[in-house]
Every structure is written in structure tokens, then in C-alpha cells.
Amino acid sequence: MIARWIRFIAGSILGAVVAGCAVLTPLPSREDVPTRLKAIPTDGAPLDGAVTIHWNENQVPFIEAASDDDLAVTLGIVHAHLRLGQMEIARRISQGRIAEMGGPLATDIDHSLRTLNFGRGIPQTIAALPPESKRWLERFVDGVNFYVDHADRTGQLPHEFRVLGFKKETWTVADILTMGRLASSDVNWLVLFGMLKLRDRPDWPEVWATLTERGSHSVPSYGPGASTQEAALHDILAGFSKAGSNSVAVAGSRTKSGAALMANDPHLGVFLPNLWLLAGYKSPSYHTVGMMIPGVPFMALGRNQHIAWGGTNMRALSSDLVDVSDLPADQITERQETLGVRWWIDRDITVRESPFGPVISDAPLIEGREGEVLALRWMGHSASDEVSAMLKVSRARNFDDFRSALDGFWVPGQNMLYADVDGHIGQVMAVRLPHRPVAAPADMVVSATGIDYWQEFSSAAKLPAAFDPPAGFLASANNKPAETDIAAGWFFSNDDRITRLRELLAGDGPVGVADLEELQRDVYMGSAVVLRDILLARLPDLSFDGGLSAKQQNIVDLMREWDGHYRIDSAGALAFEQVTANFIDAFFSEEERAVLTPGGHFDEFMGEELTRAEPVRLAAALGLALDAAAEGVEEFGVWGEMHRIGLRHPLGFIPVVGERFRFTDAPVAGSTTTVMKTAHSDTAERHFTRFGSQARQISDLSDPDANFFALLGGQDGWFNSSTFLDQFELWQRGDYVRLPLRLETVRAEFPHRTELTP
After folding, report:
1. What DSSP state is assigned to residue 381?
2. pLDDT tens digits, 678-726
């Protein structure tokens, strides 16, 4: 995610020298949980009364507060204690201030982010906040600032402050909401921005029609020729946005306990610290455990005493690209902004706005047709209040409460799943959609006069919902949602994950927690088996000079015997990936790949080509691919030796000296569209997954204490903390951390205490 941008922004000679000197300062000493907790200021907090924070050995907090105000303050203190360095990086990214950290080579990214303008609708959002939500946000910010002031006075600011040149800045409600907008990026941008440069092709209408008709894509990588800065912008948008995930709800009629089950497996950028932190809390209005985004004060995934909730990105059509080339000049406004640049001279830029939104064709890293002026119409640029929506979800007691709460949730569009203590399950489309025609337009860019459908909208209360379906379970995996009479989306994940989830849940036997644990680690990929079978079926039609060599035949045999599971020790998965990656290089031209790559992985395109390709050309490409695959299998042996998981802090990509911030290099199972998603590029080289499964939750609503979580990495963002990486091995084993909801259980099982006083 932020790997690429930190790699190139630290790449200038001056930047590397200065950053290198800072990085070489000693890391904090090894600290256990009791030592880390001493960093929390306990006296003089902006509280009305005393608050107790209970901590387990993984440094997961459970806050016991006598008022909602004091809970919000304490959450701010806890978030800053655990993740202040991460929050400071995210704040600057959301505001287009990367060059302040990395130097002059980041200015084009900052210019592009300033143009996208994640803060555009924030002043109106703040003005429209209900008093209780505004108070909640203000008190959370009070807690963050209290912690930062103390850390600054005592010299306990995170290591990132020294390395990246941070100065203490007061946090505001606008900062928090702008970070939330960054996490709400429209995943469709990853396709649309990558394809703008293709619109001058003579076959563009056919390319566009094919992509919208197929309606599926993975989170794509940029194709050959993409600049490092383009790729970095892509990684920022993909890694921070909630672009993937699996979510499952099982009705009490289908479970071993007789109560509903909820399982969530969000897919995001793979890095340290994890994008989630675990927490629990109890106050007069709130009693919940779950996962929170650092710096964002609501429980995004979790449960209370009555319900559990989860969700996946529904890839909603929340944006339009609008051609404003013919608008009168007086309808385009300009503002001047200054980009702060570390180690260099600050840079002034001009940002333009149209009545439809920012003029994104001005962004250096969004490349369209020469002379065409494009604006971005995005729901996230409007005033919306996802904080209030999710606070209401945290207090919901039944499905009607749940659906009503999510009527105020607009971006990013989510398929939200529900389960309750009475055994019921449900699903809601949490999004606000313009009344766009169902049929895709002839082009991805619409005219300024053809966008009148943004005058009427539908949200969760009007959109389709499900409650207690006959199957007894609900599953969501970024797949196409329920049919609507307006266009909900054009690009969804392929059906690998949703099909597999349904297969695993549709058996005759009752479902238990252990079954969901196994489900979250499933690594079968149906589309790979289909593609493998197409390839094997064509082999008898092809003529290879002298027949297949012994090494080529061995690769064919490995693929034929493979069961479709991407296990760490699978030679068949390795052979298949070696063949397909090398076949892509041998068969597709760079021009063909440039068309297909922005839409994500193109396995189904490959299958079609394998079916209809002329035998001589196909045999030549497959012969080369089998030869290269034989070398790859000889080198790596099994899938896990080529497919790796490497957890790195962004500082790990600083040249020469970043090695100390790279913490793992281990084999990992799964692939790009397996349930346990570990996405990767189409490559035959040793590689690391950059996006995929990185947190897990399972809750059994028969027991308030039966809530199980795991983070890929650890809870603490403080270098050398004992809980910085402590959940990595637990994750590999498929184990979980239990987070009880009953306060008496928390008091008995969480051994560490922090007592805060006013």
C-alpha cells in the first residue's frame, strides 16, 4: 500500500541521507505491557470522573466509563497511545501532505491528493452533525490531544516523529473526519483512473462494454509503463480504502449453539501497524467489543449485547467522471495551495473546482485525453454522517434499529450483515446511490448535461434488504448485490470467494465457531481450477516438436494432480502459477495487457484465449511457459517458498537503512481470490502479498463472551513493544484472542489496569 510511495519519496539522495541519519537513531528499548502502559498520563485528564481501562496481555483495552463523554475522551487517549505514529501518517496522507514527510519526489502525489480533496465536504458535515455526535467527536479529539501534549512534554512521542520530521500539531474534528474520507475512497477509481488513458484507442467502445458487461474485477495493479508515482497513488487509494472483505452471518437454526454466528474477515493493505485496533468499552449508552480504525471513534465491526455486525465493500457507483470542457469559464473556480516539501523549497499549486466537483484532469497522476477537462462527482464530497450512523449501529437492539441507523451511512457503500441474540440474521445495503440508469453508459465519462440523475437518491431504508433467508445464512464477498431498479455498481469481485463461502455454509450439518475458523483460512480457488482444466484440455490439440520434455511433462502432471488449494506446501499451486505467469508474458502483448490490467486479474480472459487461440501460436507460448515453469518449480519447490508475507512498517522502504523496519518474511497460503485472500501480481518470481486478509472476527451470540479476534501483526504501533507483532504467529496458527463482553469477565481476565482521573 504505502510501500511504493515511501520507497520513492525516500529515494532522493538528500532525502536518503537525512532520513538515514534519523533512522539510525536507536529504536525504543524492548517494552512489555506494564512498561508500555506507564506511558499513559493518568492524572489531569479532561474527564468528569474516574475511568478504568482494563488491558489483556495483547494490550487490548476494555474501557469502563461512567459517562459517554468520558468514554470518548478515553478512546482518544487509547488510540493515541497505541497508534499515534500511524495516525499522524494517515492524517498527512488524507490532507495531501506526503512531501512534508518524504521530500520533493512526493509533490505530484500531494498535488493529486489535494485535487481529489478528501476534506471537501467536511465543513458542511461538521455543521450538520447532531449535537451528541459532535460532542462525541470533540471529546475524542480532547483525549488525543491530552495524550499528545503529555508525550511531547515527556519525550515519549513515537519514533515516526523523529524519522519523518513530525512536529506536534493539535488534532481537530476535521482531521478525524478527513481521515475517515480517505478510508472511504471509491474503489471504482482504481479502475476508472487506470483506464482514462485508453479512451483514444479505436476499440475503446468495445473494451468499455466488455468490462461493464462482465462486471467483475480484483483490486488491480498498474500495468507496464506506469510511473512509480502513479503506482504509489494507486496503492494509497487501494490500501486505505475498505476495498475487500468477507462477511458471514449464520442463523440460529443452522448453528451448533442454536444462536446466530457472525464472522468478519476484512481485506486491506498488508503492513505494520495493522489498519485495525481491537477494543471493548462500556458506558451508559455503549457496550461493545470489536475492531476500530485508528483515529476513527466508532466500532466498525463488532457486537453489543443484542446484535453483531460486519460488512464488505459493495463497489457502489458513488462517483461519476464528468466532462466539463465546455462549461463557461466563470463556472470553474481556482484556489492556490502550498505544498510543504521536506529538504526542499515549498511548491505552489492551483486547484480548480467545477459545479460537479474537483477538476481531476489537473491532477498530475490522473492521465486522460489531451485537452479534456474532467471533474469528479463523488458522494464523499457531500456532507454525510457515517459517524452518527455507526454510533447508532453500536446501540442497535434489533434489525429495524440496524437498518434505520445505516440509512445515514453513504460512503463507502457497504453490504452490511447482521446477527442477533434471538437467532435472526439480515443484510442491508448501506449506501446512498443516485438514481442512475441500470444500463451502463456508452463511455466511462459522462457529459455535464447528462448527469441529472444526481437529483434523486436512495439509501438503506429504500434499497433491498434481506432478513432470515430460507438458506439460514448470508455471505458477502464484494460480489454483486441484490438487484435494484437503479444502477448499484459495474465492477465487482469475481465469484470465487462468494461461491466458496456458500459451498462451505450450505452443508447439512450445523455450523460452529470451529467451522468458521476453518472457513476464514480456506484457500481453494475455483477459477484457477477452471483455467487449469481449460489448459489441460487443449494440450492434446497442440503439436510440440518432439513432444513434451520430461520437465514439461512433470509440470503438466503437477497441475493435473492439484486440488485447487493454495496451501503453503502445494507444488501444484506453484506449477499452475508459474505456467500462467509465464504464459501471460509469452502470449499477451504489452498493448493487450495494458487494456486488461486496469480491470484487475484477467484469468477469465486467459481462459477464453486458451479456448480459441490458434494452435501454433498457443503451442509456442505454452512451450515457453512450461520450460520457464520447470525452472521455477525447481527453484522454489512449493507455493509458500515463492508466495510470502512480509510485514513492514512504511519506514522499511527507506533505501539502505530500512531493513530494521522489516519484521517478517514467511510463507503464506492463499492467493488473489481465495477466501483467505493474499493478493499478488501475476508473477513467477518470489513475491510478497500486499493486500488481503489482515484481521479476523468470530462472534457466537449464544454467549456475550464468545468473541474471537486476530490481527495480522499486533495491537501496538510502538516499535519494540511486546505487542507490536505478537499476534503474527497466532494468526499463522489460526488462533484468536478472546474479547469478552461481560464486565465481570473482563475484570477477572484482563490483568492490567490504568486508572484515569480528572
Report:
1. G
2. 999 889 999 999 899 999 999 999 999 999 999 999 999 999 999 999 9
Contacts for 664 with CB less than 8 Å, ≥ 6 apart: 645, 646, 647, 725, 728
| Single-letter code of the amino acid located at 338 | T
Please provide the distance, in angstroms rounded to a whole number, between the alpha carbons at the two ends of the chain. 40
Distance CA 348, CA 617 (A): 53
**Which has the closest alpha carbon to 398: 383, 420, 368?**
420
Is residue 545 a contact partner of residue 620, using CB atoms and an 8 Å limit? no
Angle, CA 458 vertex, CA 452 and CA 462 arms, to 5°: 150
CB contact at 8 A, 513 and 261 = yes
How many CA atoms are closer than 13 Å to the CA of 430, on its beta-carbon side? 29
Interatomic CA distance for residues 381 and 745, integer angstroms: 43
E strands, 525-627, in order: none
How far is it, in rounded angstroms, from Cα 251 to Cα 490? 30
Contact 246/265 with Cβ under 8 angstroms?
A: yes
Sheet with 445-447, side-by-side order of all strands: 374-378, 319-323, 445-447
Number of H helices, E strands in the chain: 26, 30
pLDDT of residue 545: 83
Q: Which of 167, 172, 170, 171 is nearest to 157 (CA)?
A: 167
Q: What's the pLDDT at 215?
A: 67
Q: Residue 218 carries which DSSP code?
A: -
Q: C-alpha grid cell for residue 543?
A: 503439436
- For 364, counting Cβ atoms within 10 Å of its Cβ (0-12 exposed, 13-18 middle, 19+ buried), the class is middle
The 3-state secondary structure of 546-575, one letter per residue: CCCCHHHHHHHHHHHHCCCECCCCCHHHHH
Residue range 62-66: mean pLDDT, rounded: 98
Indicate the range of 354-358, 494-498, 640-644 predicted with least confidence: 494-498
Of the pLDDT bands very low, low, confident and very high (cuts 50, 70, 90), residue 229 is: confident
Under a CB-based contact definition with an 8 Å cutoff, are residues 380 and 117 in contact? no
pLDDT 10s digits, 127-158? 999 999 999 999 999 999 999 999 999 999 99
Does residue 310 contact residue 180 with C-beta atoms inside 8 Å? Answer: no
Q: Where are the alpha helices (DSSP H) in 396-525?
A: 399-406, 496-505, 513-520
Q: How far is the C-alpha of 290 from the C-alpha of 384, rounded, in Å?
A: 24
Strand partners, 524: 565
Q: In the predicted model, is pLDDT for residue 5 greater than 50?
A: no
Longest CA span, the chain: 85
> How many angstroms separate the CA atoms of 552 and 628, rounded?
9
Q: Give me the phi and psi of 319, to 5 degrees please.
A: -140, 155
* Domains identified in the chain and CATH numbers: 1-46+72-204+230-519+708-749 (3.60.20.10), 526-563+571-637 (no CATH)
For the stretch 268-284, pLDDT in tens is 989 899 999 999 999 99
Q: How many CA atoms lie within 13 A of 752 on its CB side?
A: 17
From residue 556, give the alpha-carbon distance in Å to each of 160, 274, 561.
Answer: 50, 39, 9
* CA distances from residue 496 to 327, 479, 502, 579 in whole angstroms, order as listed: 44, 9, 10, 20
Stretch among 10-24, 280-294, 572-586 having the lowest mean pLDDT:
10-24
What pLDDT score does 656 carry? 57
| Strands 61-64 vs 277-282: parallel, antiparallel or unpaired | parallel
Cell of 498: 462468494
Q: What is residue 94's three-state secondary structure?
A: helix
Please name which of 559, 718, 651, 741 lies closest in space to residue 24, comparing C-alpha atoms: 651
DSSP, collapsed to helix, strand or coil, labels residue 450 as coil
